[in-house]
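Quick one, probably user error.
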């Protein structure tokens, strides 16, 4: 079977990525990638996209979940408790790999009991429905157990990256008026310094804490759960009651506190089934931390609602260790992010081939545009296409995906899921045809749509400023086959000499050059052209910056893109500024370049 088809183009890679002159678009937006990868996972859960798209109904899908009397529901009951009665009681829910590589196994029954104990302990401390309980832990079992416990008693879970510094912590705890924080002794030191600025914070719970080191209103996790009952009445919630409050990544500005509700579990459940394609015997690893929405929705609720065995890894990123996790746990489905994949690519092929990786059957990516070059590399080293999908903290679930039943188009985010209507519109909300660049919008009404921005109704209303649409803030275009192509954040699109250029296209062309590991592209004001394109690049291992190399990179991008779209300026950096969720912060590159204020940097990765 021929796996990679590039219809209408020669085998020459350069030709295959040349600008498609026929499409009706300006700038480089029409640089349609004709590459199609047809390699499907065996027997996907969603077999016939067209049929499902035409007939799917969210109300019908509610049958897949467990409901309480009177239309009440609890997302945590669906994620954990119901598996005590569906034959999965003794199935491993969690394989937790610690930073020092010990593997702890937790069955659904054990997670059920542990979360009941924690839920009771929180109730003892006076936590009520709607109270915010924040979790500030590395990826240890207590993080997952506590999140479930919080949801079970109807409180609102607030996941935080353990790498957050005191400023990021203060912003989020102050804004949410969190009542309780669950942390560990190392991370608590970051909290201690800002404690007097958090008047609403009543108690601190410390996992593996030393009682003698704790002050008033501080408890060890262990002392609280020790005597707590393992029987808990899981709170029947109104589907519209809040489940979690999570701040966006902060890529484009100050993070927004997005409020999601128990009804989201319907979206989590169905998208996990279709997009992640999880089966009962899968071992699934989502590399995202729950501090990012991917780690909460597809690291906890979605897979557990489907009764899947989840792998978590406390350790830091490192190519060798990551491949080892896959081999050691026999991971079959792997959900990760472009930044991680680019780093793995940068680490080289040899490290891949030192591992078997034979268990892998399906790979997915989310969070940033996935450069086609990375998909090609995935085909080469893993023998599998990487399935990109698109969603946001605000959308609460995947909305657009390269589903397992459809060919993967490298560089495209895929097609809207059944039950989701996405479109590209102009500023007046008029739908644009295939090949036209515009605003990526979605028809409101999918189950996991954000319900509000925490105490900021005005910001919430901005998402609906185009009547009849949810406005994503991303720019995109759709091709004739209904696949959506990401161009850039609405604010990132560059206007150069009358052409609109998306940073993603330029970045993707740059990383196609063997010396470029990563690239971030911005528009720099220019008297003559309005803006010129400036690229910041990180070189691949073994390359040194020189005028010749930069010229070669410039020439390469010129060949790949339309003449106006190549970066006139290229600057080599050791690394690019990124959010904790691994997204390139182009606004910082721009602010630094232009000497402007940097704005909110609380989510900036600094190590
Ligand atoms: P903030 O809203 O605070 O600026 P953020 O938008 O990065 O941060 P998230 O909700 O984590 O916060 O990310 C959603 C955004 O990530 C999308 O709007 C889109 O720009 C980008 N994104 C997600 N998936 C993809 C994808 N598959 N391809 C391209 N971009 C993606
Ligand atoms: Mg956003």
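Nope, works fine. Designed sequence:
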């Amino acid at each position: 079977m021929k796996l990679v088809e590039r219809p209408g183009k020669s085998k020459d890679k350069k030709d295959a990525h040349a600008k498609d002159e026929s499409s009706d678009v300006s700038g480089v937006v029409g640089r349609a990638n004709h590459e199609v990868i047809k390699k499907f996972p065996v027997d996907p859960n969603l077999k016939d996209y067209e049929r499902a798209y035409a007939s799917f109904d969210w109300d019908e899908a509610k049958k897949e979940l467990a409901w309480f009397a009177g239309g009440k529901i609890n997302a945590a009951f669906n994620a954990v408790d119901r598996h005590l009665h569906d034959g999965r009681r003794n199935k491993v829910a969690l394989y937790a790999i610690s930073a020092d590589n010990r593997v702890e196994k937790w069955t659904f029954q054990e997670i059920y009991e542990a979360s009941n104990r924690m839920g009771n302990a929180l109730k003892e401390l006076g936590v009520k429905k709607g109270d915010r309980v924040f979790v500030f832990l590395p990826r240890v079992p207590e993080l997952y157990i506590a999140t479930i416990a919080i949801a079970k008693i109807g409180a609102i879970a607030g996941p935080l990256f353990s790498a957050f510094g005191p400023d990021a912590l203060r912003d989020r705890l102050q804004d949410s008026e969190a009542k309780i924080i669950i942390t560990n002794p190392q991370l608590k030191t970051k909290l201690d310094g800002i404690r007097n600025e958090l008047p609403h914070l009543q108690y601190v719970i410390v996992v593996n804490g030393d009682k003698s080191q704790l002050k008033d209103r501080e408890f060890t996790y262990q002392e609280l759960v020790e005597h707590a009952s393992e029987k808990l009445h899981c709170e029947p919630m109104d589907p519209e009651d809040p489940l979690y409050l999570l701040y966006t990544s902060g890529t484009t500005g100050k993070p927004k506190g997005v409020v999601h509700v128990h009804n989201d579990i319907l979206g989590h459940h169905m998208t996990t089934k279709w997009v992640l394609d999880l089966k009962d015997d899968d071992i699934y690893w989502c590399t995202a931390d729950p501090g990012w929405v991917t780690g909460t929705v597809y690291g906890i609720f979605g897979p557990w609602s489907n009764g899947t065995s989840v792998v978590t890894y406390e350790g830091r990123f490192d190519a060798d260790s990551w491949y080892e996790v896959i081999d050691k746990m026999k991971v079959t489905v792997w959900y990760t992010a472009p930044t991680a994949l680019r780093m793995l690519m940068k680490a080289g092929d040899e490290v891949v081939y030192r591992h078997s990786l034979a268990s892998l059957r399906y790979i997915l990516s989310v969070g940033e545009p996935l450069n086609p070059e990375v998909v090609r590399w995935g085909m080469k080293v893993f023998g599998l296409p990487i399935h990109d999908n698109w969603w946001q903290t605000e959308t609460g679930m995947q909305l657009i995906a390269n589903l397992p039943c459809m060919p993967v188009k490298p560089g495209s985010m895929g097609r809207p899921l059944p039950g989701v209507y996405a479109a590209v519109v102009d500023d007046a909300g008029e739908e644009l045809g295939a090949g036209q660049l515009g605003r990526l919008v979605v028809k409101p009404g999918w189950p996991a749509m954000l319900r509000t921005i925490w105490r900021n109704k005005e910001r919430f209303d901005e998402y609906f400023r185009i009547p009849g649409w949810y406005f994503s803030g991303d720019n995109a275009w759709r091709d004739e086959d209904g696949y959506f192509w990401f161009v850039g954040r609405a604010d990132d699109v560059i206007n150069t000499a009358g052409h609109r250029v998306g940073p993603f296209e330029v970045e993707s062309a740059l990383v196609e050059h063997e010396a470029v590991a990563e690239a971030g592209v911005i528009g720099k004001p220019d008297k003559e052209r309005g803006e010129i394109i400036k690229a910041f690049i990180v070189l691949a291992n073994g390359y040194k910056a020189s005028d010749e190399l930069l010229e070669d990179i410039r020439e390469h991008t010129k060949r790949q893109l339309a003449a106006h779209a190549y970066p006139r300026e290229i600057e080599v950096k050791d690394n690019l500024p990124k959010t904790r969720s691994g997204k390139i912060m182009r606004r910082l590159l721009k602010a630094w370049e232009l000497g402007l204020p940097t704005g909110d940097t609380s989510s900036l990765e600094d190590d």
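The first helix runs from residue 13 to 16.
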